[in-house]
């Protein structure tokens, strides 16, 4: 077993340069976070109930393994004697460690003792399938004005490790002006990365600095993921002055209230920077929170998946509509997100139509499979011809001209699995009718 493990590790390291070297987020992380639905109104009970509902709804089996507490878990002050972080005793009467233990045990209870070979890590320890995460801030205070971790990185990381924390989301408020150049941001976020590493416990490190100073350039070796924009708003495309930038590149004020489709635009050029262990984070999902239609949430889930963003649910898992559950459990879409090739889709063209635009995206998966997707942000239904010279522009003429078996990944096949076979196509897919704010996505497999 050990030998096999060593061999796998060797093969992987020999074949591909990874991001942060902590063995985590080899594919984008998946889970749930308190913030988008509960905000600061969190407690041990609501978090534990969510963790149970994740198991009951089979979300854990699909890969949603992290249960994450966002801001506002902290007591009014650190321990006056040790300087260690302390949890709010009204919200977490038994402390964070007891909650982390319960979440870990929940994974064990459902009997998901499994052997996981995830590229170099050979685990046969019966790992708990649910993991636990927490939040802090690379500043004096958190965004919700609780104590931050700037200058307290070591004691905080050590305490998190003692509590059994598997994941840290690390925010960017009240940063005392230590931003504005990549070096300033790097130093501030690297301090926590090194402190986490020094604990010896693998802790997934999710940097949330809203794209400031280009984290896709400075963060891949210190973080498993980095936010690329201001906070998401549960809205398809509305412009809000508090999210003023038109591009994530050189954005001087990331802000917040960034509509979902605007974040897709921000992400478009950044796919080239993602790799195993190091991902562009398009922010947590809003599916099920009520601000978008079914078609809009399908667009949201599809793009977060194909751009290889972490998939962190943000809705009330204990109370979901069948539509919400259906969207977040589309296994064909999740499989694209988790594909070992780790290759984000690229936008091939964008065309203006009245009130919005149409765009074509495509990407490749392992085993000579491909996907392409069409997005319509306009208020009207559109009819589009998709030319395979655009879809397979990276693969060249042989691929552009060969026939493909296509399936539609938002329809089900005869046995109820996602991906309805549409037949064989060569050269183009013509007269595709796509509704307002809709996304259509196809899998293409070379046909004989
Ligand atoms: C710490 O960093 C070293 C060197 O990059 C790496 O080999 C090790 O796995 C890391 N440990 C943890 C716990 O992240
Ligand atoms: C979860 O999976 C089990 C077993 O496969 C199945 O019986 C159950 O209906 C599923 N629950 C949901 C909510 O899909």
UniProtKB/TrEMBL annotation:
<dbReference type="Pfam" id="PF16499">
    <property type="entry name" value="Melibiase_2"/>
</dbReference>
<dbReference type="InterPro" id="IPR013785">
    <property type="entry name" value="Aldolase_TIM"/>
</dbReference>
<protein>
    <recommendedName>
        <fullName>Alpha-galactosidase</fullName>
        <ecNumber>3.2.1.22</ecNumber>
    </recommendedName>
</protein>
<feature type="domain" description="Alpha galactosidase C-terminal">
    <location>
        <begin position="356"/>
        <end position="442"/>
    </location>
</feature>
<dbReference type="InterPro" id="IPR017853">
    <property type="entry name" value="GH"/>
</dbReference>
<keyword id="KW-1015">Disulfide bond</keyword>
<dbReference type="InterPro" id="IPR000111">
    <property type="entry name" value="Glyco_hydro_27/36_CS"/>
</dbReference>
<feature type="signal peptide">
    <location>
        <begin position="1"/>
        <end position="19"/>
    </location>
</feature>
<dbReference type="InterPro" id="IPR002241">
    <property type="entry name" value="Glyco_hydro_27"/>
</dbReference>
<keyword id="KW-0378">Hydrolase</keyword>
<dbReference type="InterPro" id="IPR013780">
    <property type="entry name" value="Glyco_hydro_b"/>
</dbReference>
<comment type="similarity">
    <text>Belongs to the glycosyl hydrolase 27 family.</text>
</comment>
<keyword id="KW-0732">Signal</keyword>
<dbReference type="GO" id="GO:0005975">
    <property type="term" value="P:carbohydrate metabolic process"/>
</dbReference>
<dbReference type="GO" id="GO:0004557">
    <property type="term" value="F:alpha-galactosidase activity"/>
</dbReference>
<dbReference type="Pfam" id="PF17801">
    <property type="entry name" value="Melibiase_C"/>
</dbReference>
<keyword id="KW-0326">Glycosidase</keyword>
<dbReference type="InterPro" id="IPR041233">
    <property type="entry name" value="Melibiase_C"/>
</dbReference>
